[in-house]
């Protein structure tokens, strides 16, 4: 009987290897101060990472224990050694991932709810509406100029910024990490959109031919860098109109659309919304005026709206009434953070809300929460949910039930 093969050795974590190599080559005058707690240094550095070429993003871990400060010093020699550590980490991860040269290193952080008040880390009471990632810790590489969120970027600012990209579900997305957030966990919901018309086994209402899909329109009231906008276009819809306030997100969406081979037009606040041949139209203004904007288009176009995406967290409820007036026959996709024990209760509340709004307008249609999608956990016991509200005429519902 042949002897059993020994188990394959688990590859060394590249970050651990980089830190060990860094400690080994420290100058003699720094060795004593840095290596006396070697075990504690290695124990606090992260073991995981995400590559958004050419950037490596590391987790923050315990917010009270800022592991990246292990090499902080006002000493010029130590500063140079710190940069060497970051390069070693980039090189080690680059070899493991095989994604070419990695040039930038940062620590991820949650998006602050309020805008920064000063450089020291204090925050004002004003809401961070643009979802600016002020908590990002930039360790190595030039991430672009320091700009105030209230400062309108110029074309040169866009040119000088650092841009990264990733591909999810075959769709390229581009953003500038210093100025724009990216939600990796939305990949599941993007995939669900792509599979929406094929979920006919559960929902006969969704069965649509490619010919019918190509005549459909989607509206995204919180377009961002094109998270769901791109999924609707790849699905085969005729056009998507989105609203977005953050100019950096709009520029990321524009670059991403072009990278995917789609045409895009940006409509500024002072410009008239007109339909053209473009796949994607982004209106760069507050979505409070979205209904008014759409009502200025021909009625045949409005009847083609089949999907309205309301993708703001922790809740998008400020746009729901307006969305109910936009849709003729189709689906509203309502994003909200909900406690796990309250999900079904919230679905009933939403259904009641929409039916009430339709009744107030003497609107002879029905609104039903057709499906609840649990996208990802947002916090312990809290889910990022998407409630699919199907709005349709009673006569059409009766016809479907008879089939």
TrEMBL record:
Q: Which SUPFAM superfamilies match?
A: S-adenosyl-L-methionine-dependent methyltransferases
Query: Which cellular compartments is it found in?
Result: Cytoplasm
Q: Which reaction does it catalyse?
A: 4-demethylwyosine(37) in tRNA(Phe) + S-adenosyl-L-methionine = 4-demethyl-7-[(3S)-3-amino-3-carboxypropyl]wyosine(37) in tRNA(Phe) + S-methyl-5'-thioadenosine + H(+)
The UniProt keyword set, sorted, is: Cytoplasm, S-adenosyl-L-methionine, Transferase, tRNA processing
Give yes or no: UniProt keyword tRNA processing. Answer: yes
Key word Transferase present in the record?
A: yes
Q: Which PROSITE patterns match?
A: SAM_MT_TRM5_TYW2
Q: What is its main location?
A: cytoplasm
Any single GO BP term: tRNA methylation
Chain segments annotated as coiled-coil in the UniProt record:
none
For this chain, one GO molecular function annotation is: tRNA methyltransferase activity
Q: Report the pathway entry.
A: tRNA modification; wybutosine-tRNA(Phe) biosynthesis
Q: Where is the SAM-dependent methyltransferase TRM5/TYW2-type domain?
A: 96-393
Recorded hits in InterPro entries, A to Z, give: MeTrfase_TRM5/TYW2, SAM-dependent_MTases_sf, tRNA_wybutosine_synth_prot_2
A GO cellular component term found in this entry reads:
cytoplasm
Family of this protein: Belongs to the class I-like SAM-binding methyltransferase superfamily. TRM5/TYW2 family.
Q: Explain the purpose of this protein.
A: S-adenosyl-L-methionine-dependent transferase that acts as a component of the wybutosine biosynthesis pathway. Wybutosine is a hyper modified guanosine with a tricyclic base found at the 3'-position adjacent to the anticodon of eukaryotic phenylalanine tRNA.
What is the name of this protein?
tRNA wybutosine-synthesizing protein 2
Q: What is the lineage of its organism?
A: Eukaryota, Fungi, Dikarya, Ascomycota, Pezizomycotina
């Amino acid at each position: 009987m042949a002897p059993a093969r020994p188990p394959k050795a688990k590859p060394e974590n590249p970050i651990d290897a980089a830190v060990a190599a860094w400690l080994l080559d420290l100058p003699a005058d720094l060795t004593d101060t840095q290596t006396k707690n070697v075990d504690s240094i290695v124990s606090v550095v992260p073991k995981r990472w995400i590559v958004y070429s050419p950037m490596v993003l590391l987790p923050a871990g315990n917010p009270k224990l800022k592991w990246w400060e292990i090499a902080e010093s006002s000493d010029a020699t130590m500063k140079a050694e710190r940069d060497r550590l970051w390069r070693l980490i980039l090189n080690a991860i680059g070899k493991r991932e095989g994604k070419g040269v990695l040039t930038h290193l940062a620590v991820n952080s949650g998006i602050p709810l309020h805008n920064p008040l000063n450089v020291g880390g204090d925050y004002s009471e004003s809401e961070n509406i643009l979802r600016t990632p002020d908590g990002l810790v930039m360790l190595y590489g030039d991430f672009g100029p320091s700009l105030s969120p209230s400062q309108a970027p110029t074309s040169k600012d866009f040119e000088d910024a650092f841009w990264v990209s990733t591909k999810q579900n075959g769709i390229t997305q581009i953003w500038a990490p210093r100025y724009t957030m990216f939600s990796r966990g939305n990949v599941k919901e993007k995939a669900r959109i792509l599979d929406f018309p094929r979920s006919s086994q559960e929902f006969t209402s969704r069965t649509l031919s490619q010919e019918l899909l190509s005549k459909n329109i989607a509206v995204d009231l919180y377009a961002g860098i094109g998270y769901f906008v791109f999924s609707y276009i790849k699905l085969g819809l005729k056009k998507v109109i989105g609203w977005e306030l953050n100019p950096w997100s709009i520029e990321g969406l524009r670059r991403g659309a072009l990278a995917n081979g789609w045409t895009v037009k940006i409509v500024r606040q002072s410009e008239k919304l007109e339909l053209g041949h473009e796949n994607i139209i982004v209106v760069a203004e507050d979505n409070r005026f979205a209904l008014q904007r759409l009502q200025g288009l021909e009625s045949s176009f409005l009847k083609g709206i089949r999907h309205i995406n309301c993708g703001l967290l922790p809740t998008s409820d400020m746009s729901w009434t307006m969305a109910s007036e936009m849709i003729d026959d189709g689906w509203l996709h309502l994003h909200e953070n909900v406690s796990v024990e309250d999900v079904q209760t919230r679905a009933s509340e939403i259904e009641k809300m929409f039916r009430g709004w339709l009744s107030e307008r003497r609107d002879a249609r029905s609104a039903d929460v057709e499906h609840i999608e649990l996208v990802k956990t947002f916090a312990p016991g809290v889910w990022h949910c998407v409630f699919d509200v199907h709005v349709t005429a009673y006569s059409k519902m009766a016809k479907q039930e008879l089939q």
